[in-house]
Design brief:
Helices cover 68% and strands 1% of the residues. With 408 residues, the protein is mostly helical. Helix 1 runs parallel beside helix 3, helix 10 runs antiparallel to helix 11 and helix 11 packs antiparallel against helix 13 (351-382).
Length: 408
């Protein structure tokens, strides 16, 4: 065995990769429970198919574009790791120096899979499967992979000093702002007077949340790329922020709506987990409680605001992932402590770190929105993005996939 390889680190990241992989099926259950019963298989299919499509992209150049030698700080060398050329047992000194480079590839692949899948909750019930497949490929190449390179692959934002522990900008801001762009472009669902849009299976929502939360320990803890104290810090911060956000959302919605909602509590937990993601390995434990409270309040009121604005973000992707990712990506510039992972924030007097986090968050949010909107316009010229009214009324499960979730 290569002497640079640490067995404990390797085992930990392999397990973390498996945990992150489990998050995509978890997301399928979470979203599946929130939609109407006539569209549950469609959104599950949109989530699961990301595992196949994005894996192909990641192998056939995507990983190389993300982590290959930088070309002007914008994108990686396409041919360097194409078809896993040069990705083997030997560690890469820049990306997990104590684990096989192949393990790093697998771990990052799972992030690439779930990120575009997050977007599907925004346009639930109204987008064709064919257009989703095309969008999935283009969006991964033009939004997700550049973000990875800019921040994690040594690109221009990394050189500015921007930090993102496990994907506040790379995952949640990118998907959240893409969700908003899709909602604005595609428009509202066609809903008949009196038609019920309530979640069709709240038990699925709870199951999905449990799988997501479980996987998030690998998502954040594994981003230390070693079994060490930073991983432990990230693990604990993940749990605290998810818990405090869940409680915050629960009590705020309880006061507003009069009843303690399970869906509300689950949504709050996801918002807190998204918000702490960029901070997890940089901030002290006490601050993660504050981060969770801010996430619970900020994301709840963002979701209320989108209702007033008439945005049909069906499953609150922008409100939870977009707003949560923005808040967390900025707050790492406030609460980071050098003694934890070498980065100081505003509380230690580092105004520069706060400002670069603010700049990167705003820039990437605008980029993700604008490029996503342009992709949708382009795809729509060749394949209709939105299904017909008849298909939408019948339900996408039966009309597109020829299957139904329930026979009773």
């Amino acid at each position: 065995m290569n002497p640079a390889i640490n067995g404990a680190d390797t085992g930990f990241i392999l397990i973390s990769a498996a945990l992150v992989m489990l998050m995509t099926p978890g997301l399928a259950f979470f979203y599946g429970g929130l939609v109407r019963r006539k569209n549950v298989l469609t959104i599950m299919m949109q989530n699961f198919i990301s595992m196949g499509v994005v894996t192909a992209i990641w192998v056939l150049g995507g990983f190389s574009l993300a982590y290959g030698d930088s070309v002007g700080g914008i994108i990686g060398n396409f041919s360097q790791y194409f078809a896993l050329n040069g990705v083997g047992f030997a560690p890469n000194p820049h990306f997990g120096p104590t684990i096989p480079f192949l393990v790093f590839f697998a771990y990052q692949e799972m992030f690439a899979i779930i990120t575009p899948a997050l977007i599907t909750g925004a346009f639930a019930d109204r987008v064709s499967f064919k257009s989703w497949l095309i969008f999935l490929v283009i969006w991964s190449l033009l939004v997700y992979i550049p973000f990875v390179h800019w921040i994690w692959g040594g690109g221009w934002l990394a050189k500015m000093g921007v930090v993102d522990f496990a994907g506040g900008i790379v995952v949640h801001v990118s998907a959240g702002m893409a969700a908003l762009a899709s909602v604005i472009y595609i428009g509202k669902r066609n809903v008949k007077p009196g038609e019920d849009l309530a979640p069709h299976n709240v038990a699925y929502v709870a199951l999905g949340t449990g799988l997501l939360w479980f996987g998030w320990f690998g998502f954040n803890g594994g981003s230390a790329l070693a079994a060490n104290g930073i991983a432990a810090q990230a693990f604990v911060n993940t749990d605290i922020a998810g818990s405090s956000a869940m409680l915050t959302w629960l009590f705020v919605s309880w006061l507003s709506e009069g009843k303690p909602s399970l869906v509300g509590a689950m949504t709050g937990a996801v918002a807190g987990l998204a918000c702490v993601t960029p901070c997890a390995g940089y901030v002290p434990s006490w601050s993660s409680f504050i981060i969770g409270v801010v996430a619970g309040l900020g994301c709840y009121y963002a979701c209320e605001m989108k209702k007033r604005l008439g945005w049909d973000d069906a499953l609150d992707v922008w409100g939870c992932h977009g707003v949560g990712g923005v808040l967390g990506s900025i707050m790492v510039g406030v609460f980071a402590f050098k003694g934890i992972n070498g980065v100081s924030g505003l509380l230690e007097g580092d105004t520069h770190q706060f400002l670069v986090q603010l700049f990167a968050t705003v820039f990437c949010a605008i980029y993700a929105y604008g490029v996503t909107y342009a992709i949708l316009v382009l795809v729509d010229k060749f394949v209709p993005v939105r299904v017909t009214e008849d298909v939408e009324e019948q339900g996408l499960d039966e009309a597109i996939h020829g299957e139904v979730a329930y026979r009773i």
